Each structure stands twice: as C-alpha cells, then as structure tokens.
C-alpha cells in the first residue's frame, strides 16, 4: 500500500498579507509554511504508516525551493517525495494543477490498495478544488473533510467532519481523501533522526518532459496560459470598525439606534 | 581560500526550526508554571526524547540521533529563548551520555546509551560535594572495592546535582583510592534504585526552578565493578573533559536566554507608548537594544566557535571556558537591561522577564563559576 500525500507550500497568512500590484499574492515577502490542512493529511497518512507499515510519498507541485518542504515531511516520517516542477506548469489554476498532479500520480502508479490524501483546501486560494478534481481525473472515488481514516484490505472507513456532526463513510481503494485540520489531529514533529536522514531519502523531480506525454495532460490547458481561471481583481476588504453597545432602557436603546441609523441615512 | 563558513547545514537549519517550534509549542506554555511550582517538566522531557533531542551527539547504533556539539548548541539555545529550565535540563542531561560514549566500554555503551537517548531516561553528572565545589579535587565520597563480591561500595554525599533525583543513570565521581587524592578519583555509573543510594534534600533555587537539584546520599551502596567508567584514577580527567563540553552547553543556554530577552524587549518597545510615542523612538532605548544585540551576537560567535573546535576534534578547553564566561556574564547583562526596559511590568511575575533575570544568574555559577573559568583561561593563555 502506498499513500500519496499532496501538499502545498503556502504563504503564512497569520502574519501580514502582501499583495502584488497585479493582484496576486506577494509570496516572496511572506514566510512559507506547509498548508495547515495538508499537515492533517500528512499526519493521518503517517498514522496509517505506523499501523500498517505502508509507504508514504509526499507530492507537491511548485518551484524548486519547495524541496525544502518535502524534506521536512520526510523528516516527519514520509518515505520519499515527488516534486513536480517546470516553468511550463507555472501559473496553473486548480483545473490545470489537478490535471498535472493526476498525471504525475498516474505515471508513478496508483495500485489497488493505494490512496491519495490531500488537505481540504489551501489557505492562499481557499478553493478546495484540487483534491476533488484529481479524483475526477483519475476516475477514483473521493471522500472530503476527513478527520479519521481507517483501512482494512481495500475498504477504507472515513470519518467526515461536517458543520452539524460527523458522517462515517466506507469507500473502496484506490481512492482520494481530503483531510481537514482538527484539534484531534496534532501533526507530529520532525525527529532529529529523520532530519539527519531526510536529504539522503529519494526525491524524484517530474518536469515538463517527464509528464508532457501522459494521457491525462492536455498541453493547451496547463500553466498560466492554459488556465481557465483569471484573477479579475484582488483586494484586502476594509476592516470592520469596533461595535458599540447601546446603554439604557429598551426604549432608550431603540431611540438611540433609530437616531444613529437616521443620521447615517440608513433609514 | 574560502574556508570560514558560518552558515548552518540544511540539516542544522531544520533542527533549528524543529527546536524553535518545540520550544514555542511545548516549553513556553508551561515555563511560568514550571518556575512557579518548582516542578520538573517530565512530560516535556519525554517528548524531547521522542523527537530525538535527548540523543544529540550519540550515534544511531546506541539509540542516539547523531550530530555533535553544534547541534547541541542549536537545540539548547532555542530552548533557552523560551524556557531556561528546559534548556538547562537538556544541556545537563547530555553530559552523562557523552561521558559514557567517550569513556565507556562497548558493553556499557550498549547497556546505558539507549536508555539515555530514545529510552527517555534522564542522565546526571554527580561531582559536586558540600566541600568540593570549585575545588572539585576535594571530593570525599569513596568507592572501595570489595574483592569478595567484585563490587564498589560507595559512601558519601553529593550535593547540588541537577536532575539527580530524576535521573535513571548517573555518572558519579568518587575516590577509589582515597589516599591518592586526585589521582585516586574515578567515575562510576550508578543506576537509580540501587540499594544504598537515596535522594536527600531537593533544593529550592532562585531560578531554573524546574530543573530539580538534589542531594544524593550513598550509604554502603554496592555497584558492580563493571560500572567503572574508564580506568581507575582517571576520574578527575574525565570530569574536567566532560565539563569542557558541558560549558559550551551553558554558553548555549546563556545565549538562548539573551536572545529570548532581546526578542521580548524589541516587541515591548514597539508596543509601549510613553510621551505619546513608542519608547522604541527613544535613543536611550535604542542604545540599550544595540548593546544587547551586539554583545549577544559576539557571545554566540564564541559559543559556536568553541562548538566547532570540539566537533573538529581540536583542543577547546580555553575556548569553552571563554565562551561560557562571556555568554553567562552577557546573559546577566542582557536580562537586566531587558527587565529595565520593561520597567514596572518587567518586575511583575505576569511578564517572563523577572523569571529570566533569575534564571540567567545560574549560568555564571554552575559547571564552574566565572572565577574558575578565569583561572582556566589564564592558565591556558599563559602556559608556555
């Protein structure tokens, strides 16, 4: 059994968010972190590795420095990693990205017992589209919002976290599962042993040449030019002001409120 | 001619990231409680073992994580930024496995190192006695060989032993031939729970309160002769060499707490408004910060240089003493100014500065006082 964990390096939005004049994120000026939902996917894959001894492969599409993130995931316990990186892939939207990742996994081979784990969504784009699109392109079942994954033979039992409760779903491998950040899942630390060995573990780089002939790739729908999504405008929404608590009896409060709304010409 | 390279390796960068993350997520949240309650953070020590930090400098075949002195400096200094007691615990723990690795025979290494690394047991180094502090040669604890049973019989009292009450494996310095004085000193491995070995007073300290400091009492404590570390009569040399390495660890603690105090100060001076503007705008404050940062950068460079020498297998006694002397005096200087910058808030227990001010002081005292370091340095500098 092999688990591919798809991960993305994202700007740390807990600090200051910087936007380029063209509306795209200024990634260079922000610290890069592993997308939080992806950390949950990594942890759930490593838990299955602890239980079954399966192979865990970290997969990302990104510029060459993304290797650093993959090495960190190996230092956490993954066996190997795949970096999908080519200038031709740059600027891909979710449609193009999922096509390329699906092609890469198809090339690497998805066996009968294998699974693909993704984070639910990345904190930079927040689309939650790449995971499900990979599943569609590979024509395998998908389960989203997982906070727990158990496997016996080819059957996978997934606990989904929804707004109003949990749902247990049984799914057949090979399948794709998107994982969600949850307080019950604490991503493990790297270990010092893992760190000492992570740069000697296998890391395969798949470039344009390696993937261009894959049947899942359509050369005119990859990269910035081939992406159907275009950013029309991006901006930081103005901050909401501090709320005001009105004081007095109910009548006084209502009068006060009406007075304020009238002054602002709301009513 | 491009040899001097101050950059960390990729692995060291990752270790720094790991140690920083661990310090922020595990150590910092309990630092205040550990100090207030004087409680050894046992759970966190176990977590350190789980991620391999208690096995720094010990080869993988003995359960360790590899790396060397520079890796120790990286981890200990990151810990020191957030919780000095934890930095101290890790740094001092590492002395015993290092000594066993260096002087132990294969059997001893196989037996004790896995326990002290991935096994999660704490190590301790027991040299000091009530009348043998800076004068380490004045040790009175004896270990007389009983030829009938092939056991050493230990009698005496050790004091101020960091982690002594928690340690599973202790390296204890004793006189196997009391008449020979220094030349009769030996190092013996003692396990927790050995009959005749008991814990006396647990000290109530000014700082690093979470690092349990204990009195150890040996009353006819019998230890197999196979627990002798190195050769009989080599104890003083083993102790001094172990301390050379340990002092770099104290240097790392000192630069860690200094950097932590600077981080807090930089944050505070930008937030604290007086006379209508952040106090960061005041030149007096800027000069404080500049002095703190400059001296700390210099202290770090000397600590890392000493670590480099030890890792490279070069003589480092002088540099180890220098880096500890300098970094510890700087830690007192920096925590004092940081507290001063924080003013009344700094003096309150709601802020970490008063704890750091107390914690920093120990670095000028343990693993050799500043004065003893000057003796060592002068001897090294003036020898012909």
Write a structural description:
The complex is a heterodimer of chains A (267) and B (384). By secondary structure, chain A is α/β, with parallel strands linked by helices. Chain A has a single domain (2-226), classed as HUPs (Rossmann fold, 3-Layer(aba) Sandwich), CATH 3.40.50.620. Helices cover 30% and strands 24% of the residues of chain A. Chain A is globular, with a radius of gyration of 22 Å. By secondary structure, chain B is an alpha+beta fold. Chain B has three domains: 10-116, Acyl-CoA dehydrogenase/oxidase, N-terminal domain (Butyryl-Coa Dehydrogenase, subunit A, domain 1, Orthogonal Bundle), CATH 1.10.540.10; 123-233, Butyryl-CoA Dehydrogenase, subunit A, domain 2; 237-382, Butyryl-CoA Dehydrogenase, subunit A, domain 3 (Up-down Bundle). Chain B is 52% helix and 15% strand. Chain B has eleven helices and ten strands. Chain B has helices spanning 10-37, 42-50, 69-82, 84-93, 95-103, 106-116, 235-271, 283-311, 317-347, 353-361, 370-382, and strands spanning 123-126, 142-146, 151-162, 169-175, 185-191, 197-202, 213-224, 228-229, 273-274, 277-278. In chain B, the strands form three sheets. Chain B has a four-stranded mixed sheet. In chain B, strand 9 and strand 10 (277-278) form a beta hairpin. Chain B is globular and about 80 Å long. The mean pLDDT of chain B is 97. Classes of the chains: A alpha/beta (267), B alpha+beta (384). At the A-B interface, helix 2 and helix 5 of A face helix 1 of B.
The strand order across the widest sheet of chain B is 1-4-5-8
Largest sheet, spatial ordering of strands of chain A: 9-8-7-10-6-1-4-5-11
Contiguous runs where pLDDT drops below 50 for at least 5 residues of chain A: none
CATH topology of the largest domain in chain B: Butyryl-CoA Dehydrogenase, subunit A, domain 3
Tally the helices of chain B: what do you get? 11
The largest pleated sheet of chain A is described as: 9 strands, mixed
Name of the CATH first level of the largest domain in chain B: Mainly Alpha
The CATH H-level homologous superfamily of the largest domain in chain B: Butyryl-CoA Dehydrogenase, subunit A, domain 3
DSSP summary, beta strand count of chain B: 10
Helix content of chain A: 25-40%
